[in-house]
Specification:
260 residues; five-stranded antiparallel β-sheet; two-stranded antiparallel ribbon; 51% helix
Length: 260
Amino acid sequence: MTTPFDKQPSKRPGLLTRLRNSFLTGIVVIAPVGLTVWLIWTVVGWVDGFVWPFVPDAYQPNALLNRWLIGPDGPRLPWLIDLLDSNEDGRVEINVRGLGVVVFLLFTVMVGWIAKGLIGRSMISFAETLVDRTPVVRSIYSGIKQLAETVFAQSERSFEKACLIEYPRKGIWAIGFISTDAKGEVLAKAPALGGLTSVFVPTTPNPTSGFLLFFPKEDVIELDMALEDAAKLVISAGLVYPNGKEAKEAVEERVRHAAQ
């Protein structure tokens, strides 16, 4: 006779349950890879579609390839033309995806190299002076410029370290990113004896938005974890913990000391 308190034998999952679990596991594996490949492929195609209209027709990939394959005396490599797609005129039509990205990178590097020189800085300064005198264009240009400098500039606009601060009230801790020490009017008018530190407190799961807060330096606890690990912790809402094994061992050690 069995009672409700007797341990029931565990049932083996059915075929549909195992198929469902295998399908979900496959989705977890395929989704990041597939979405990453799709995103890169889409961005590359978008850059190609943006770059090629600015390239003269004589220097388009199809024009260069046909100029090399078809000479004045006829096709140089007839067997290769037969393998490739060609139209009624015998011209080869191909889609070289990603070559526009290479052209864009080379063009950007060249513009950056010129902009670092004296002539380039003078031209940029003159152009920005003209833009500042145009009401609508001035607002659009300044906003895009600030966004680009924030995202791509690496000189003095990167966060220094991750930290812990008590926010939004005492006893509640939040992860922040130390940017710089407070300066100017903020430091002069804030009643802090040891100085102020500007801390960016990101939101979860989108760390690009958040709050800029100024804390006394003695209230900011610097963390040893890297900025990337702190960002992962914020994005994952605490699910992806850096150095999880070491943190677990430290917590267990504290529990053992507390029990003694």
